[in-house]
Amino acid sequence: MIVSLATTMLLPNLRAFPDLRFSILLLLLLGGAAPMTSAASRSPSIEISDAEYEGIPHFRIVTPGGTWYYDKTGGGLSRLMDRDGHDWIAFHKNPSRGPGAAAGAYRGIPNAVFGKGNPDAGVGHPGKDRCISTKEGTDVIRTVSKSGTWAWTWRFTPTHAIFRMEKADPDQPWWFLYEGPPAGRYAPREQYWGTSDGGPRRDTPTAAGVTGQWSWVYFGDTTSPRVLVIAQMKPDSIEDSFRYLGTDGAGIDAPDGMAVFGFGRAPRPLLRGADLEFRVGFIEMPVPDAAAHDRLASAIKDMLQP
Fold it and tell me: Closest Cα to residue 244, out of 233, 253, 234?
């Protein structure tokens, strides 16, 4: 109807301008409003730009859900800031050793490759010069170890990030870790966590920690309106673990420290091979009780959709 009316009223008056007449006709036939509709329905933008943090070249990824910093040569996430500016990773180059490194160089995601006998130890860990990372498209970062043995991608969405291991050393195990301060602070007595088995939990394991076989976990703080969720797409029977690590002998009462969680960590790396996928992101809701845990479980189910 609209095309017919336009061709009746407009096109006859444009005979003196054949090129313009053809362009208008083509636009009408193809549906001139379609590009506007497509743009309006497009997902919020993901902005990946070059940055520097701790004197190290980084990618800075800005999304509606938070801001991520990715160490180009380490191949790991060094910062993850929520909408309130709290850094849930807060990697620092120093302290680099000993218990004090729980407030510094130990932190990161995924800190994938570990082991004194592993020639690629440090691959996937911020602060380690073991990788080459490039931006691919508007929302993907691809990392390859300098040895060429390991390769993975991170794809960023408005709400979370998707890690996929593309290539792994067949002779070396690895793990997927979160090591950082929930809500930007080390306060185990005021924090909580939960898993696909239930929650929230307020126990504060140290030393050997707590082990289980979990599909997903979350970490929260009583002062924060959100939780950090970490999930694996292929549930398995491999042990996972969680504990708190303080910067001194005071344990959970130490002045600083970090949460230590690992898929495939009990206590050594247990994951093997490629084609494993993990998702990391905030869900904007606190989890004070079991009812809230059930609501969160439903939200995580949505987060895990292909």
Answer: 253
* Contact assessment for residue 248 and residue 187, using Cβ atoms and an 8 Å cutoff: no
- Domain 49-303 of CATH type 2.50.20.10: no
Please tell me whether the peptide bond between 182 and the residue prior to it is cis, using omega within 30 degrees of 0.
no
Residues 6+ apart with CB under 8 A from 73: 56, 57, 128, 129, 130, 131, 132, 133
The set of long-range contacts for 43-46, using a CB threshold of 8 Å and a minimum separation of 24, is 43/157, 43/158, 44/158, 45/138, 46/138, 46/139, 46/156, 46/157, 46/158
CA distance 287 to 168: 36
Whether residue 74 contacts residue 111, with contact meaning beta carbons closer than 8 Å, is answered with no
User: Which residue, among 115, 221, 241, 237, has the nearest Cα to 176 in the 3D structure?
Assistant: 241
CA gap 155, 137 in Å, rounded: 10
Q: For 159-210, write each residue's pLDDT tens digit.
A: 999 999 999 999 999 999 999 999 999 999 999 999 999 999 999 999 989 9
Global pTM value: 0.86
44 pLDDT band, cuts 50/70/90, is low
Q: Domain residue spans in the chain?
A: 2-41, 49-303
Question: What backbone torsions phi and psi does residue 86 show, to the nearest 5 degrees?
Answer: -85, 130
